[in-house]
Amino acid sequence: MTLRVGSAPCSWGVWFPDDPRQTPWSRFLDEVAEAGYPWIELGPFGYLPTDPAVLADELARRELRVSAGTVFTALHRGPAVWDATWEEVRRVAALTRATGGEHLVVIPEFWRDPASGERLESGRLGPQQFANLISGSERLGERLRDDFGLRMVVHPHADTHVGDEETVTRFLDATDADSVSLCLDTGHYAYCGGDSLRLIETYGERIGYLHLKQVDPAILAEVTAQQLPFGTAVRRGVMTEPPNGVPELPPILAAARGLGVELFAIVEQDMYPCPPDQPLPIARRTRQYLKSHSA
């Protein structure tokens, strides 16, 4: 089946709505189109224009389309955070839907600061927090489906409460498949010690979206040994250009196609911050590499 290949602002060094070290949004759109990607994610809300008509025009001029928006949530904190969470999610969902996107990527909140490494809370959820995460995720998935026609895909991520094989499979076993799907990020899952190919083979029916990413195993070993936060790891180059890292992408692409459904496969190589001329050559090479493996 078809893999709809695209890229995202983080592959151009974009992590924040506004940061002078980041690639300007117009340059990102120009270069992602030049590199040959027809699909993009919105990235952090406010980086791209938030007026749907303006953004739609900018995308159309470059023959680009939106696959998804992205939000961070802290649903494990329970009903007290629901109203603020929904307000944030709602504005991202509205822009995603207005520009033709079909998915919302939901990332659990960090348990430690990604830059300083300061511990913000425990790295493990207690029973009530886990129950909050499950009920909140199901409620959010249902609301996004009913109000916006979007499919919610939860993104396991480094330094969050859903990251390694144990927490990911526990999360999937506990949630309703009709309202909660998974965004499998091959790089983050490897970063946390997971096997993406095995996850596709065992939980393939729950995977609704892919992020294609690799990690440098030597740098990852240093990061793990030193217990470094994710932001420091990225600055050290833990996320590397394919095919220089792990996991191997061709078997994962083949397994994803074997699921028999259409999937977005969005390239994400975190490089914050990075020199402005660095992303485009990498994006071109990565696109050619994926094409050589029928993606």
Specify the CATH architecture.
Answer: Alpha-Beta Barrel
The N- and C-terminal alpha carbons lie at a distance of 10 Å
CATH homologous superfamily identity:
Divalent-metal-dependent TIM barrel enzymes
The helix/strand class is alpha/beta
Would you identify the regions where 5 or more consecutive residues have pLDDT less than 50?
Answer: none
Q: Mean pLDDT, rounded to whole units?
A: 97
- What is the CATH topology assignment? TIM Barrel
Could you say which overall geometry the principal axes of the C-alpha atoms support? Answer: globular
Total of helices: 11
Overall helicity: 40-55%
Output the helix-strand order.
EHEHEHEHEHEHHEEHHEHEH
Report the major sheet. 8 strands, parallel, barrel
Total strand segments: 10
CATH class: Alpha Beta
Physical arrangement of strands within the biggest beta sheet? 1-2-3-4-5-6-7-10
Rg, rounded, reads 18 Å
Q: Quickly count the domains.
A: 1
Protein name: Sugar phosphate isomerase/epimerase
Pfam families: AP_endonuc_2
Keywords: Isomerase
Domain Xylose isomerase-like TIM barrel: 29-291
